[in-house]
Records
---
Amino acid sequence: MKELIIKLKKISNQEDYFGKLPLINLVILLICCALAFQKDLTSVISSHLFILMWVSISSYQVFNLYQRKDCSFLFAVCNLPQRHIIGILLATSLWQSILFLPALILQLILTLNAPIMIAVLTGIVHFTFAITIGIVLSLLSPSHLIGLIADIVLFLFYFFTGTGWTTAELFSIVSPAVQIHNVYILDIPNFYGLITLTLLGWGLIGVTKHFSLRKKNIHSIVYFLVTVILFISAGYMPYYQNQKVFNIAYSQLEVEDLTLTYRGIDETSAIHYAHVFHDLEQAFRDNGLISSEIHHIEIQKYHAPIYLRTARRIPFIIKDDTLYINVFSNAMINQQDAPLIHEMFYRMSIQLISNQNPQLLKERNSYTLIYSTIYDAIKDKNYSTQLKDYSYYIVKRVTSQRS
């Protein structure tokens, strides 16, 4: 068995990578490390997804190589049971890509300071998901090229929808990027969705390999149906999470001169939002951009699946003297990433201006005023140096563009 795996690995290396697979893997690791250690969230997500795409492609190549009719090694394995063949091919795929698993884990720990347990779980789930995608595509694609293109397109889709936290949430149960927007909190619906999708893939593999009109493998069919049900249930996980939050009573605190009520998020995050809004509102009043005050903040964690019409996907809403904050993504309570925190400042600022001084948004220098006021709100307060530097950078960039 071991000798056959080694033989398959050598054939795959020669057939698909011209004997340069170790070198290619090393180059990819170096590129991804250079990208990730820029330490901004978009770069880390891009690096993470690129590694997953390469792992999936490697898995696809191994399984597709087995099916190509002009490969001589087919004669060596054709008499083995199907489950043994799948096991051998899977072991070969793991052997080729296993170094990328610790790379995924260490990348999250070293660049985003992710808790070790969450980083390990994320790395394992995402790595397994990528391998499964490659295997499934190799079994379903009508040709090698079409399957390869489909694999690349899928992960490009994850890239274009995953680098922004709002678009990532639209596909929250099937996107590997969702968890990376806040590596400090385990996103249970996202993990459950990816795990059930992976199981569904293996159910499909079992049906593809064993199912035929002449002889039905009942175990494979039952397993496949169970995985279908599990994946469907993943779609209702956010709804279930919503109901849990709705059954929790609001907690209430007095923060600065604000009455804060919240449920579904921790007290630290709720108080953080109250301080942020207080400082922001004070800066806008001091700069003469608004006059009235907000006295009440209501925060609710809200899992907002796209297919439920009741989903409210507007994060900040001001009505009368109350600011309503709908936390529909863990990215909104990420207190470590400066661009994400700054975006929350900006979104609250737009709501303040739209509610109290909408004419300002029509002026040519409106965005310069808004970003400058955000900087005024944080420059002398107890915020991180990274946030202050990022806010100053945004002010300079917007000012230069408007001049």
---
Amino acid sequence: MEIFIYSLAAVGFICILWAIYGILFSGFPRAEGCAELYLFLDSRDPGAEQLLRAANRARRTFLKGMPVLFIDTGDGCEALERLASELDIDYFVM
């Protein structure tokens, strides 16, 4: 009978700790939902290709599966569009 009482006390203690944890950390951001990375840059900018490659490298290293969207604010560039498709990055021209 004592083991049953001790088990209930342990469960109650864990519930109290969980409630305190919820109260203390309720204001912190949580990783829920979907996130997307938007890159706005003119394709004539010399760093555009480097930005695409850096975004792909960051996604592979830290943000696995996160969609990356490159939004070209210029006239568009066929080479950058090809590179974006090779890197599985969505490419749009404004």
